Amino acid sequence: xKIALAGSGYVGLVSGACFADFGHEVVCVDxxxxxxxxxxxxxxxxxEPGLAELVRRNVAAGRLSFTxxxxxxxxxxxxxxxxxxxPSRRGDGHADxxxxxxxxxxxxxxxxxxxxxxxxxxxxxxxxxxxxRIVGASGTQQRFAVxxxxxxxxxxxxxxxxxxxxxxxxxTEDEWARGVLSEVYRPLFLNKxxxxxxxxxxxxxxxxxxxxxxxxxxxxxxxIADLCEKTGGDxxxxxxxxxxxxxxxxxxxxxxxxxxxxxxPKDTLALLKTAEDHDTPLRIxxxxxxxxxxxxxxMGRKVIEALGKDARGKKVALLGLxxxxxxxxxxxxxSLAIAxxxxxxGVTVAAYDPEGMDLARTLLPDVAMAAxxxxxxxxxxxxxxVTEWDAFRALDLERIKQxxxxxxxxxxxxxxHPDEIRxxxxxxxxxxxx
Length: 434
Ligand code: UGA
What we know:
The chain is an alpha/beta fold. The chain has helices at 10-21, 33-40, 51-60, 70-74, 98-110, 127-137, 158-163, 175-184, 186-190, 200-231, 235-243, 264-277, 283-306, 334-344, 357-363, 373-377, 397-403, 418-423, and strands spanning 2-6, 25-29, 64-67, 79-82, 115-119, 144-148, 168-171, 195-198, 315-319, 348-352, 368-369, 382-385, 408-411, 427-430. It folds into two domains: 2-198, NAD(P)-binding Rossmann-like Domain (Rossmann fold), CATH 3.40.50; 295-429, Rossmann fold (3-Layer(aba) Sandwich). The protein binds uridine-5'-diphosphate-glucuronic acid (UGA).
């Protein structure tokens, strides 16, 4: 089957490469000629483990190609996925659907064969209706249906999530569209991945409800961590103690500096806007977004506290800048708020991140980027682990102690064990271990 993806960003590219790997013929389309040129040359626009190799293999097998021409890309495709960005609209937090609407119009104008048009972009409930209206208004004579097929990929684990999904959600009321999408995902049915057919609106809501629920879980354990600090509990034990109850589940109960990234912050906000428009306040999600926002700067203050009296003029080393490991994504990363809080308090900041420093340089011009964790640590009054990259799990602590001015380790991801670190002579501050 031929499949086209309109939009070759994170979602479009990962999905396209995986569909090609299933054996489909895939064309990834993008308006950005530079991006398409680089992709043709085998250069990835994002850092995602395994992606370059997957793309290379499928291009070599003749199953995956790239173009800037939407008309050429969708010619003969039975399924056309819309995978363009839906950023927060400036000023009001609504999802900005201008790219989705523009691409829908262009698909309508260029449709020369029957096709199922599928929104993979994260779009508010009701967007499928609008896409259907826009494609219809183009005057196309071809048969088409519009379905919703949200993606649940995590950055850093996207290929594995795509190939071994917890579930596939397909939202459409159209039998023909169901058949086409069943064929698209057939290799995964063979692997017994659960597939859920729903209405288009339910599928759109599932995506936002899932992200809001996960954000709530994280925020819940973060607040419990604060309570642990005040009362002498250990949040790691509390998380394990509740997570073993399989009605709760152990995942997304890892306390930290607050969630970031391109999805949770933007999607919770967009969901709240949808709720507001429908006069149905989602008070729990409102609280989650607010608590998470204030938490990031609070983490900066936690570091300042660890510096002791008068932080002004002191130096802090930040290890990890991206919002999580195995990505170069800096969007809404807690490191941004932490670094800014420190700089506002007159602290000098040096940092090291395995993948995020190119982007971070422009976002944090006042932070000195170091060649590695040890270079960042030189002369520091405190070393802070902000992102749990594997490389930071086995630091040479003796070397850190020698390089730093003071042996203070602030571990915002709880990757070290308090007793062991303290035994090595460090003042150790972590999350929720009172
Ligand atoms: C998230 C969802 O997990 C995916 O299912 C979804 O497809 C994606 O958003 C999306 O909507 O596109 P992602 O943003 O890549 O994926 O990253 P996560 O692994 O979910 O982490 C998000 C944030 O939560 C990170 O800042 C992470 O450090 C934080 N987190 C996660 C915690 O603080 N504690 C946890 O226990 C888990």
